Amino acid sequence: MTAYRIEALANHDRKGFDCGSPELNDYLAKRVSQDVRRRFTACFVMIGKSSGEIAGYYTLSAGGVSIQDLPEHVAKKLPRYPSVPVVRLGRLAVAKPHQGKKLGGLLLFDGIRRAVKSEIAAYAIVVEAKDENAIRFYEHYGFTAFSARSNSLFLPLQQAVRDLI
């Protein structure tokens, strides 16, 4: 990853970012700063070291899921609390010129690493995949669908440490 660095969003030029999804482009250009200021999310950007442009980004926030939403074989191994603490990876996008270079996986690994290193406890990282391609992307890295919602997936952080980082 020598050609890129990942850092917290600051005063980066976000206007030219285009990942092919108007919703993800608009969020980065117009709304993420407000969410960061209000502490609803943390945003991390991948910067091309030579160009200084944003090659990709992702967001992380704290959350919880009902233990009843987890597959039974997972839930039966967990403490009987009504809610399980998780880290939500809310958005992940790679700019068009940088797609096909496996940067999405690097952004995902960085998010998982930050979740694992946090001193705040969380059982899993959770994503809401926007389409079938995104579902396949996350499943490739070991994510499993929740029982009732096929586009909502989770990866236990202990498994991520063992298998991915």
Automatic annotation (TrEMBL):
Gene Ontology terms, MF aspect: acyltransferase activity, transferring groups other than amino-acyl groups
UniProt keyword terms in alphabetical order: Acyltransferase, Repressor, Toxin-antitoxin system, Transferase
Domain N-acetyltransferase intervals: 1-162
Catalytic reactions on record: glycyl-tRNA(Gly) + acetyl-CoA = N-acetylglycyl-tRNA(Gly) + CoA + H(+)
UniProt keyword annotation of Transferase present: yes
PANTHER family xref list: ACETYLTRANSFERASE, ACETYLTRANSFERASE-RELATED
Name of the featured protein: Acetyltransferase (GNAT) family protein
Species of origin: Stieleria neptunia
